[in-house]
Amino acid sequence: MSGVSLPRLGSPAPEFEAESTQGRVTLADFRGQWLVLFSHPADFTPVCTTEFIAFAKAAPAFEARGAVLLGLSIDSLYAHLAWLQRLEERFGVAVPFPVLADHDRAVAMAYGMIMPGESTTETSRCLFMIDPDGIVRAMIYYPMSAGRSIPEVLRLLDSLQLTRRAGLATPADWQPGEPAIEPAPRSIEEARVRAADPAARDWFFRLRPPPA
Ligand code: BEZ
Fold first, then answer.
1. Separation of CA 41 and ligand 1 centre (Å)
2. What separation in Å is there between the alpha carbon of 43 and the centre of ligand 1?
3. Which atom belonging to ligand 1 lies closest to the Cα atom of 42?
4. How do residues 56-96 score in pLDDT, each as one tens digit?
5. Catalytic entry in 48, 87, 101, 129
């Protein structure tokens, strides 16, 4: 397999239409909501099981943020149905979000989810945050061996939503409610004004309490 082509931040998300555990879905179905599309390598595997349990438990937190979860792997619909049923029976966790059965790899290829150095037959742990206008705002790529941190996924979503709402950026290790960062000045005049502000650390650095 030659190069992997990835979506681009700030560009429209690749369109898709695929079968899922909750019926056929298309990208357009999610317009007006934040979409968190994530791939896992395979059903009936241990790390994926822990991730699905964690995403399922956090589903209300995503819903509270106006976000929808959508899982994906290159398994069949029947494998997904059997695995989700097993998660409910053995772990007492019902997965409330749809899982795409990307049997023909069409979505995996469009989103660059197959990393040939890891596997040519399974998707790596890729996650895309797509805004209500269908624009890719964040991408996270993890290797198959490492389960993702769902609190970090939620923190990233909070940051993206703050940026969309208030035009603010967020500093390292930011948590919701903490001060955010104003964009750096883009002209000499703006820099002079900022430098004269006693609330600014420097001409390029001013924090602001995030809006409620
Ligand atoms: C897992 O989910 O445990 C797993 C799947 C594929 C490769 C490595 C681990």
1. 6
2. 9
3. 5
4. 999 999 999 999 999 999 999 999 999 999 999 999 999 99
5. 48
Strand partners, 136: 130
- Look up residue 193 and give its two tokens: 């004004």
Residue 82 and residue 69: Cα distance in Å, rounded? 19
- d(CA 71, CA 104) in angstroms, rounded, equals 16
Residues with CB under 6 A from ligand 1: 41-42, 45-48, 144-145
pLDDT of 26-51, one tens digit each?
Answer: 999 999 999 999 999 999 999 999 99
Catalytic annotation on 48? yes
Atom of ligand 1 nearest to the CA of 48: 2
- The minimum-distance atom of ligand 1 relative to the CA of 122 is 6
